[in-house]
């Protein structure tokens, strides 16, 4: 019982209720318009600005809302003066919002209550968090108001202060805004309205005490929204149309110039051929050699027969037809081809130029400037190498892998050729729907067989006391499922799924601590699973979008943070449970053998995963400013490099240890304690379905 | 009673659906959309091959080749000999004699000659130390900023301003970042407010002057802020990290340092307060949920 107070007391006067309403609208408005200005390079912000009628419009809205909000603060302060001076009221004391020593004692005892020790304290008229709410908004609003005025009238204020105080005001305005939104939009709403004790709404601020009341605010809000939308449409200017200019004159020598210098349309066959002819003007001659003597002669005999024989040279070598005659981008395959994800080659191959595998030349090197493994212009004897042969290598040939994956390579690859990830790995990593190696296939079959056996076991029961055939039972079950899914009972199942399976309601009922340690593991896995499914779908649908590539790329900052965060959650949950199970050993916890096996197995899998990540960071030499986002892997990599310098050989063994442990986990899934991952949700849903039928 | 419970759960399902829809909305509204990479515009400019479709739409679309390039005959300075090594060495911005531009663009040329870029160019030509500068670090001439084949004429103030931000920002990257983070850049470039300031509104189009001392900046401020004074001009538009190579401007360094310290202090405060109260709310809800479930 917390935050409960006597019913019927007038907690908020009409003035306070009115002020709250105005501040609510004003603050929301000021926050939305302000952050739209701050994040004006994002699409959503530009949508808001568009609705408000452009940059001028949103500025006016921001100022109107700000005046409204700050006006409420002024009214409140004036009322306080009136209250004190004329009504002779008390501003300080136990019944007021003035902070007292008791509030700090309340905070401490409330925190101990939250950790499950002791009872919740009895709060006075205003509790400590309400006082914090009040003072935070009072001080915050004044900061926002004053800095906002400085930004509104910079000419006036720089009469008293030097100009860079405006910069300081900007900084204060931004950070105060972030804090206000982070606290008011989340903490205030959650603690005063959404807490289970008061959910869904503490109405006292709207009606003074209690009881239901329905206002017309929704309609007013809708009308306001419609009005602003219409206004935004009206204010929006039409785009200027560019009129075509005079046509080109084709007299004199201009036509002669254009015989060579016209950019051909390389999408057509004619254009492709003319582009080839332009380049072969030099590159078709024997005299075309580089300074070091490397021949640069390309013949249509060799090139024309290849897969790309009918493409224009400048279609791939896009930026080469210029002086100085050099290419910064190299031949760009990704203009026509999609990069492939885990399906064919793993995500570490994102830092490989396509040509490193797909061209016939076996010599490659690591270009540290571009952080890319590229075709080398020198062979193993450091002699210059001609790359004019445009033939493509057979990508099924394992020798291609051996270009990098050999002991002592200089490109940061492991010395072992590892199989691609399989479908089993999708629980934690982005993976294709494929079997990377037969070991994974076997584990998958064992798992499926185990669950099939379990289902068969369920079907051995009797229906209504009479023995029926399997077919009969399946049809009865199917009928029951159909009846449940296509009825209003479906929503009941949905709610059971959400509260009992996703939110783990039953575990929370037992103990907060158990829920917490289980939730760490559970949400860690759920997060990783969600991430890998998301990347599978995103890569399947948009293989060449930045977002999909970022999801595949382990070194992308967001992907790295999320992966390490979820992995860290699992590990923290395992450690917490292990401490509880093996060190604290409360009397009511029955430590079963199977539990310990599951716990230790998952612990080792996650730990080896992080060791693998650390080894990968060492191996591939990810620069520290990038690697630091994999915050756990980065620390591990520091430890690893102090143990041993060379991880190329060891990486393969750790990989297989990690993989085999996961294979054991998966094969063991239907037989041990771990089957609760599948059976518990199923049991809960079936039980709820059965309850429905009886109604 | 049962009906009410059922209603509540239907609402729960709807909330879940709404949450999923909101998530997808957020995913589609994030900045980097799911689109293919476009061809880069600047790559086309340096090419030997002229895209006639774009050229005919450009400001120079009505000119013939020789109007700018001359006759390109066999005389020295004419057309480079095919296959000769020297023909491939020099980029077009170095080869072309941009003083020819002044035949038509007199005013711009005069402005440029007065400006800081022309000063740097002069220094580059006389100082032997600067002879072997890389292409990126050379003083810019007309062709570095303007695309003579493809720049359209009669572009709007907004389009010119946005392109200007990219072009100037190509070399002055810190300045571009700070400009886009500031109020001027956000409103002018992101929101298309043409009453806000683009690069050339303060620094001049072809003169390109430095406005580091407040005295120099004041006339620029006065164009839009009629009541501005010297104190107003001490506003830091580009709070960049002090550059080691330049002469350290002490006064500016102090101003930037103050801004940075305030930023760091504020972010630490915000982080601590937010983390504490989020943890506070989370634990509280867990405990209350637990107790509520127990009572049922």
Q: How many separate helices of chain A?
A: 27
Q: Would you identify the regions of chain B where 5 or more consecutive residues have pLDDT less than 50?
A: 27-44
Structural Rg of chain A: 34 Å
Q: Radius of gyration of chain B, rounded?
A: 29 Å
Q: Assign an overall shape of chain A.
A: globular
List the SSEs and their pairings:
The complex is a heterodimer of chains A (695) and B (296).
Chain A: H1 14-38, H2 43-51, H3 54-85, H4 101-114, H5 128-152, H6 154-157, H7 164-194, H8 204-207, H9 217-235, H10 254-261, H11 269-283, H12 300-303, H13 313-316, H14 354-358, E1 364-367, E2 372-375, H15 398-402, H16 438-458, H17 470-485, H18 489-502, H19 505-510, H20 512-541, H21 546-552, H22 557-584, H23 593-620, H24 624-627, H25 631-643, H26 648-668, H27 676-694
Antiparallel strand pairs in A: 1-2
Helix pairs in contact in A: 1-2, 1-3, 2-3, 3-5, 5-7, 16-26, 18-27, 20-21, 20-22, 22-23, 23-25, 23-26
Chain B: H1 2-29, H2 41-45, H3 52-57, H4 65-69, H5 92-95, H6 106-114, H7 116-126, H8 142-145, H9 157-171, H10 173-181, H11 183-190, H12 199-203, H13 214-222, H14 250-295
Helix pairs in contact in B: 9-10, 10-11
Structural overview:
The complex is a heterodimer of chains A (695) and B (296). Chain A is mainly α and 695 residues long. Chain A contains 27 helices and two strands. Chain A has helices at 14-38, 43-51, 54-85, 101-114, 128-152, 154-157, 164-194, 204-207, 217-235, 254-261, 269-283, 300-303, 313-316, 354-358, 398-402, 438-458, 470-485, 489-502, 505-510, 512-541, 546-552, 557-584, 593-620, 624-627, 631-643, 648-668, 676-694, and strands spanning 364-367, 372-375. A two-stranded antiparallel ribbon of chain A has the order 1-2. In chain A, strand 1 and strand 2 (372-375) form a beta hairpin. In chain A, helix 2 (43-51) crosses helix 3 (54-85). Chain A is globular, with a radius of gyration of 34 Å. Chain B is mainly α and 296 residues long. Chain B has helices at residues 2-29, 41-45, 52-57, 65-69, 92-95, 106-114, 116-126, 142-145, 157-171, 173-181, 183-190, 199-203, 214-222, 250-295. In chain B, helix 10 (173-181) packs across helix 11. The longest helix of chain B has 46 residues, at 250-295. Chain B is elongated. The relative contact order of chain B is 0.05. Mean pLDDT of chain B is 78; it is low at 27-44. The chains are: A mainly alpha (695), B mainly alpha (296). The interface between A and B is large, with 109 and 104 residues.
């Amino acid at each position: 019982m917390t935050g409960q107070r006597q019913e019927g007391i007038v907690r908020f006067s009409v003035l306070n209720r009115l002020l709250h309403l105005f501040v609510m609208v004003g603050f929301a408005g000021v926050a939305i318009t302000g952050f739209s200005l701050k994040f004006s390079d994002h699409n959503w912000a530009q949508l808001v600005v568009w609705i408000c009628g452009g940059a001028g419009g949103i500025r006016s809205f921001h100022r109107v809302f700000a005046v409204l909000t700050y006006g409420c603060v002024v009214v409140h302060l004036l009322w306080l003066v009136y209250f004190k001076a004329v009504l002779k009221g008390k501003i300080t004391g136990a019944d007021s919002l003035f902070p007292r020593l008791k509030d700090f004692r309340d905070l401490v005892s409330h925190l101990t209550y939250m950790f499950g020790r002791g009872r919740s304290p009895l709060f006075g008229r205003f509790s400590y968090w309400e006082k914090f709410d009040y003072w935070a908004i009072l001080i915050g609003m004044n900061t926002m108001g004053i800095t906002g005025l400085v930004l509104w009238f910079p000419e006036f204020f720089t009469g008293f202060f030097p100009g860079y105080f405006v910069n300081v005001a900007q900084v204060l305005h931004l950070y105060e805004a972030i804090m206000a939104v982070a606290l008011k939009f989340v903490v205030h709403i959650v603690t005063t309205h959404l807490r289970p004790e008061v959910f869904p709404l503490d109405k006292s601020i709207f009606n003074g005490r209690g009881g239901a009341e329905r206002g017309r605010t929704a309609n007013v809000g809708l009308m306001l929204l419609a009005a602003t939308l219409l206004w935004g449409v009206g204010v929006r200017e039409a785009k200027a149309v560019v009129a075509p200019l005079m046509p080109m004159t084709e007299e004199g020598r201009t036509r002669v110039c254009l015989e060579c210098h016209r950019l051909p349309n390389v999408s057509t066959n004619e254009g492709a051929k003319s582009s080839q002819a332009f380049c072969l003007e030099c590159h078709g001659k024997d005299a075309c050699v580089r300074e070091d003597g490397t021949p640069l002669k390309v013949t249509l005999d060799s090139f024309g027969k290849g897969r790309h024989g009918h493409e224009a040279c400048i279609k791939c070598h896009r930026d080469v037809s210029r002086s100085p005659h050099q290419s910064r981008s190299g031949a760009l395959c990704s203009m026509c081809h999609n990069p492939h994800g885990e399906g064919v080659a793993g995500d570490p191959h994102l830092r490989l130029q396509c040509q490193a595998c797909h061209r016939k030349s076996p010599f490659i090197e690591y270009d540290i400037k571009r952080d890319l493994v590229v075709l080398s212009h020198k062979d193993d004897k450091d002699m210059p190498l001609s790359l004019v042969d445009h033939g493509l290598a057979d990508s099924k040939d394992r020798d291609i892998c051996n270009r990098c994956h050999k002991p002592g390579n200089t490109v940061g690859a492991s010395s072992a050729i590892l199989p691609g990830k399989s479908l089993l790995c999708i629980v934690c990593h982005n993976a294709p729907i494929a079997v990377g190696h037969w070991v994974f296939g076997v584990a998958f079959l064992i798992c499926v067989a185990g669950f099939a056996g379990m289902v068969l076991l369920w079907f051995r029961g009797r229906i209504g006391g009479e023995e029926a055939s399997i077919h009969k039972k399946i049809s009865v079950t199917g009928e029951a499922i159909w009846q449940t899914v296509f009825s209003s009972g479906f929503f009941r199942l949905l709610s059971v799924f959400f509260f009992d399976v996703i939110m783990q309601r039953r575990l929370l009922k037992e103990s907060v601590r158990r829920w917490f340690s289980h939730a760490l593991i559970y949400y860690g896995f759920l997060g990783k699973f969600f991430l890998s499914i998301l990347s599978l779908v995103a890569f399947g649908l948009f293989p060449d979008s930045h977002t999909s590539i970022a999801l595949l790329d382990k070194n992308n900052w967001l992907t790295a943070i999320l992966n390490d965060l979820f992995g860290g959650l699992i590990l923290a949950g395992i450690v917490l449970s292990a401490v509880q199970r093996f060190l604290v050993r409360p009397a009511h916890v029955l430590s079963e053998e199977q539990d310990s096996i599951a716990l230790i197995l998952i612990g080792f899998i996650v730990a080896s995963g992080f060791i693998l990540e650390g080894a990968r960071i060492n191996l591939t030499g990810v620069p520290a400013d990038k690697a630091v986002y994999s915050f756990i892997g980065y620390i591990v990599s520091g430890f690893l490099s102090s143990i041993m310098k060379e991880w190329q050989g060891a990486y393969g063994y750790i990989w297989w240890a990690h993989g085999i442990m996961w294979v054991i986990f998966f094969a063991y899934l239907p037989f041990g304690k771990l089957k609760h991952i599948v059976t518990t949700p199923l049991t809960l849903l079936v039980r709820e379905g059965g309850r429905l039928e009886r109604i | 009673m049962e009906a009410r419970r059922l209603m509540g759960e239907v609402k729960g399902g709807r909330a879940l659906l709404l949450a999923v829809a909101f998530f997808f909305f957020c995913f589609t509204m994030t900045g980097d959309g799911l689109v293919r990479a476009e061809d880069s515009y600047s790559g086309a400019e340096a090419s030997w091959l002229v895209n006639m479709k774009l050229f005919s739409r450009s400001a120079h679309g009505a000119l013939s080749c020789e109007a700018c390039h001359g006759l390109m005959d066999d005389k020295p300075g004419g057309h480079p000999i095919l296959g000769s090594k020297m023909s491939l060495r020099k980029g077009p911005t170095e080869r072309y004699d941009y003083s020819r531009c002044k035949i038509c663009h007199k005013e711009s040329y005069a402005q440029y000659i007065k400006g800081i870029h022309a000063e740097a160019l002069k220094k580059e030509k006389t100082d032997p130390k600067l002879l072997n500068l890389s292409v990126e670090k050379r003083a810019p001439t007309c062709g570095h900023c303007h695309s003579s084949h493809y720049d359209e004429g009669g572009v709007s103030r907004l389009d010119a301003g946005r392109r200007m931000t990219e072009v100037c920002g190509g070399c002055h990257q810190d300045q571009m970042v700070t400009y886009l983070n500031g109020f001027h850049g956000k409103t002018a470039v992101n929101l298309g407010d043409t009453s806000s300031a683009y690069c050339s509104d303060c620094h001049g189009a072809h003169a390109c002057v430095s406005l580091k001392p407040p005295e120099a900046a004041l006339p620029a401020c006065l164009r839009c802020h009629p009541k501005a004074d010297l104190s107003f001009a001490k506003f830091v538009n580009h709070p960049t990290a002090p550059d080691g190579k330049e002469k350290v401007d002490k006064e500016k360094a102090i101003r930037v340092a103050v801004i940075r310290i305030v930023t760091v202090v504020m972010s630490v405060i915000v982080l601590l307060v937010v983390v504490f109260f989020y943890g506070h709310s989370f634990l509280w809800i867990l405990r209350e949920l637990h107790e509520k479930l127990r009572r049922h």
